[in-house]
Amino acid sequence: MAEENSNVGEVTLSRYEQIVAELRDVVEQQTRGQFTIGDRALEIEPMRETGGGVPADPEWSVTATLTRLAEDIGLKFSTVKSARWTSSRWPADRRQPGVSFTVHRTLAFIEDEEERFAVILTPPEGRTRWVPDDARRYVGNQVETPITPQEKITAIHSLAQDDKVAAAVTSVFLKRPEVTASVTPVDRARVVEEFTRDEHVATTAATNLLRRPDVAFKAMSDDHARFQVNHAQNERSRQAREHFEDTSPVAPAVRNIDRTVEFLDLVTACHAFVAAAGRTVPGLRDRTLSEDEGAIVHQNVAKVRATLDWIETAVDTGKVDMDDELAAMLRGE
Description:
The protein has helices at about 1-5, 15-45, 60-75, 75-90, 100-105, 115-120, 130-140, 150-160, 165-175, 175-180, 185-195, 200-210, 215-220, 225-245, 250-280, 290-315, 325-330, and strands at about 5-10, 10. The protein is an all-alpha fold. Helix 3 (about 60-75) crosses helix 4 (about 75-90) and helix 5 (about 100-105) packs parallel to helix 7. The termini are far apart.
């Protein structure tokens, strides 16, 4: 009894059912009307096979004829053209009463005739009749009312095809913590890379990130990243020195001091390494490193040994260029 007395909108349930029955008759009439338009257009201009002959007189081409017909009956050319094509896909004995013209038109995209004629007889599971969105799902078209996550994603993509709209939507989404939290680390990295293609943006982002101690520590744990940072520092120093030597009037007098400073820096670096090793190695007493730990230590010892050879060569010959093998090793490759 409660269901009988409930309203749908501003009308009772019983009145709503009367309206539905009435409008189904209207939709059925519209469907017959649409098929009638398609059938008459098809009579005037039968469907031609792809690559078929073209009428001798261009004035009476298919487009010209259908345009004239559309104007004469007060419809758009696209409406008449669509109705003609839909009629061609549904012979009169295959059209289903109670199924709207919209559904017929959508399922008309099924290429195989046997499948097309069978599908329209069987609504989706849980449905008593075909509705337009179900037909769109079947043929793989975008639905008007998305339900599944993928359908919603497709709808968003469609609405955000304009770059300005996409940028605005992305900005809004990235301000929602629950959204950013659900993005995988790999995808987050891709987003950051995409946003930092501009060198100015990349420089600003990298500078800000490296000011965070935990980020800087982890970044410098990567051999290649550490090599690039060291290379950048050396390159910056080199450029500054070249600028000084090219522009400063006191540069010749400073060159002799530079040689002494470089000598002291090199001796200091060697002393620091020996002192650090002297403090660290004794701590390995009675401790067995794992296989992975041992491998890492051996790799770093190889880098140190190669660097020492490089230093000796530079001291003995004055040649400071490193070969490709050493450069690759110091980059961690």
